[in-house]
Structure formats: structure tokens, C-alpha cells
Amino acid sequence: MKTKGLLIVFSGPSGVGKGTVRKEIFSHEELGFQFSVSATSRKPRPGEIDGIDYFFKTREEFEEMILNGELLEYAEFVGNYYGTPVEAVRNSINEGKDIFLEIEVEGAKQVREKFPEGLFIFLAPPSLEELKNRIVNRGTESDEAIAGRLKTAREEIDMMSLYDYVVVNDDVKVASEKVINIIAAEHCRRTRVEKIYRQILEAK
Ligand code: 5GP
Q1: pLDDT tens readout for residues 133-162
Q2: How many domains does the chain have?
Q3: Are strands 54-56 and 38-40 parallel, antiparallel or unpaired?
Q4: Which residue among 12, 25, 117, 148 is buried most deeply as judged by most CB within 10 Å?
Q5: Whose CA is nearest to atom 17 of ligand 1?
Q6: Alpha-carbon gap, residue 48 to 59, rounded angstroms
Q7: What is the DSSP letter of 197?
Q8: Whose C-alpha lies nearest to ligand 1, atom 18?
Q9: Is residue 126 part of a domain?
């Protein structure tokens, strides 16, 4: 009997280092997680590749995807659309592969409503001050954009209650190991395992 893959939602405030931790996790190819490539209306940054980092769309194309029901969730973040194509998620789960979504909190909330049995992990900053330093040091944004991101971050921290687990990102390797361990534990959760065995018995 084929077991379904896990839908893993990895989220947290802007600037907390979700992308870095996610890349560290994905350097472990043996884990076999699928990465959910998001669609976005933002312009590619240097080095980003269409179809690998994001599916880069115009606003019109993105809105078309919304209308066609092609997105599991979507949100507008700092003036751009971001969303998760639903088909890849569906396929992975049905093929028994874990699919990993790295998304902001508004989108995570939508997924929680549609797919409560997912695994929801919140990456938290060691402190708001450190979060601020990280955003400033990134050096790619105006003061106004930074202030906007910080305000958003405070609101997002309030949203921690939607999640199953909170991992503090004080060290990328330690945080990524914790996420990997949480996923491993989730596969052993009694309710999930029991369901599979019961299905096998019922199929007999
Ligand atoms: P960035 O522009 O820095 O790549 O991403 C900005 C924010 O959008 C990050 O917090 C990132 O996790 C989030 N994000 C990326 N893809 C998606 C998505 O498909 N849906 C949602 N809701 N947020 C996303």
C-alpha cells in the first residue's frame, strides 16, 4: 500500500532566514523532499532561475492562475504576489513524497484551513533586534521597505499559534537539523501510522 506524502509548511517572519534554512535542508538530497516551486509576480533577483527558484509571472498571468484555481494559497507580500501551484503539491502527496512549502504566514494560514493535517513549522527569530539587523545587512531595500517588513514581522510573530512546532533560528545548521527531526518524528506519529495499518487490514 502506498502511503501519502506529508505536506510540510515552513513559514515565519520576513528576514528570519527561511530561505537559508530551507537550502541547508535541501542540501540533504537523501531526505527526498520535493520543494514546492512558488509562482510570483516579483522580478527575478540576480542568479534566480525561472522554474527552479520561482515561476516568474506578470501580475496578469498570476491573476489568471488565481481565477483558474491553480493555487493552493496565495498572498500579496511587499507589493508582489506569491502563491503555491496546487498540482505539484497534489502529485507529490499522491506519489508518497513529502512536499515542502516555504511560504509567508498569510499563505500558511490559508493552507492550515484547507489542509489541517499538514505539518506546520514556524521559524522564529532569536529576537526582533536580530531580525532587524539581518534585514538591514541585506542592503537591498530602502528604509521604508525595511520598516514595512519589520511591522509585518511583529504581526507575524503573533501568528505563531497556528503552528505545530516553533524552531528558533539562532544557528542555520542546528535549526535545519531540528526541522529534519520534526519531519522524521511526524512520520512516526501514531495517528498517521495507525491509519495506514488500519487501511491495510480493511483492504484484506
Ligand atoms: P522573496 O521575495 O524574498 O523570495 O520572498 C518573500 C516572501 O514570500 C518570503 O517570506 C517567502 O517565504 C514568501 N513566499 C515564497 N513563496 C511563497 C508562496 O508560494 N506563497 C506565499 N504565501 N509566500 C511565499
Answers
A1: 777 777 777 888 888 878 877 776 787 889
A2: 1
A3: parallel
A4: 12
A5: 103
A6: 18
A7: H
A8: 83
A9: yes
